[in-house]
Amino acid sequence: MSYVKDSPQVYLSDLRKMNDSVGALHRISQVEPTSAIMNGHFDYRRHSGGLSVHSSQAIELQNMSNSTELPAGLSFNFLFEGRIDFSLGGQEYCLGEKMQGGVECSAIILNTPEIMTRYMKKGMRVCKSNVFVERSWLEQRCQTQQQREQLSRIFHQRSGLQHWLASDKVKDLARSLLNQKPGNGLAGSLYTEHLAIEILSASIEELSQVLEDVGAEETIAVTHKNDHQLRQLIDEKLDEHCSLSDIANLINVSTSTLQRKFKAAFGVTVIDYVRQKRLEAAKTALTVDGISIGEAAYLAGYNHPSNFVSAFKKRFLVTPSAMVKSHRR
To answer: Rounded to whole angstroms, how far apart are CA atoms 155 and 112?
Structure first.
C-alpha cells in the first residue's frame, strides 16, 4: 500500500487510511473531519510482509492525538527538524531533544504489540523519516543460529525507546529517504523498499552494538518455527478458554510436556502467558476502545477490579487509570 500526499494538505481521512493499512486498532481525538491536519509532503508506503516506510516534511495544523496498536517490531526514527511527543506503554517520550549533527536517531523496540499515542501540536514543523519492521518479518529472514540469537537479544529488552549515535552512512540513507519522491510506480516502490532495507541492515547492526554496550544479557532463549506455531495455537484458543489439557491434546503431548516446551521457548508457563495476553487485550480496550476499568477486568478474566488493577500494575508498571491518562491529553 502506497500513500503519497503532496497536495499540500493532509486530512483526517488520510491519517485513517495509513492506520487502516496496518490493520491495527486505532483511535483519533475529536477534530473537525473536513479540516486539514497537516500542510506539506506526506509519504507512507507499506511493503509486503511487515515492512513500512514513512516520511514527512509538514507543519501540524491542529492539536490532536492519534493512538495506534503497533505489532511487535522495530521502529527506526530519524528526526531532522521539530519535536515529536508520544506515549508508549504508559510512559511519555519526546524526540527532538538530542539533535546531533542535524538529526536525532532513535529506535523503538516493541517486544509485544503496544499502544502508541502520537501528539500533534499546532504550528510545529516536523521533518522526519521512519522505517518500521515487524518482528515476524525479521524472524523469517534469520538463516543461522547466530542471526536468531542476535534478534532475540534485541527483543529481550523491555519495550521502549533507545537513542543511539548513528553513523554518517545511516544518516545519509535516512536523509535520502526523507527527500526522495519516486512516485507510486513499480520502480519507485522497489527503490523505496531497497532504501528501507539498507537502513534496516545498518541500523540493526549499530543498535545491537549499543545494546551490548549497555549490558544486555548474554544468555537468551532462542525460539524456533515449531515454538511459534505452538504460541500461535494458544493465541487462537484464548477466547475459547481452553484448558491446558485441551491444548495438549491438540498437539498430542502431555500437559507436563506442553508446559516444559513452552517455558523453555518463551520463559513463562502457558498459564502466565495466557494471563499476559488477556491483560494486553484489556490494555488495548482501555486505551483504544475507551471501556471502563470494570469492563477491562472482566475482559482479562478477573472477577474483582482490585485484583485486575494489581495484576495490571505488576505487568505494565502503571495502574490502568495512569495508562489511560498517558494516552489522553
So the answer is: 9
**89 has pLDDT over 80:** no
Residue 243, Ramachandran bin (φ over 0: left; ψ between -120 and 50: alpha; else beta): beta
Dist. CA 238–CA 255, nearest whole Å: 17
Q: Which residues contact 215 (CB under 8 A, 6 or more apart)?
A: none
For the entire predicted model, the pTM comes to 0.69
Pair 195, 140: CB distance under 8 Å: no
- Based on the structure, what is the number of domains in the chain? 2
Q: What is the dihedral of CA 91, 97, 100, 103, to 10 degrees?
A: 80
Residues 24/73, Cβ–Cβ less than 8 Å: no
**What CA–CA distance (Å, rounded) separates 320 from 90?**
9
What's the distance, CA 264 to chain centroid?
25
Residue type, 166: A
Residue 35 — very low, low, confident or very high, per pLDDT cuts 50/70/90?
confident
Pair (255, 175) in one structural domain: no
Give yes or no: residues 51 and 189 share one domain: yes
Task: Identify the CA nearest to 22 among candidates 63, 60, 53.
Answer: 53
Q: In 155-302, where do the E strands start and end?
A: 160-163
pLDDT confidence tier of residue 220, bands split at 50, 70 and 90: very low
Cell digits of residue 110: 516493541
Residue with grid cell 536517531, as numbered in its chain:
105
- Are 209 and 239 in a shared domain? no
- Residue 292 is part of a domain; what is its CATH number? 1.10.10.60
| Domain co-membership, 256 together with 148 | no
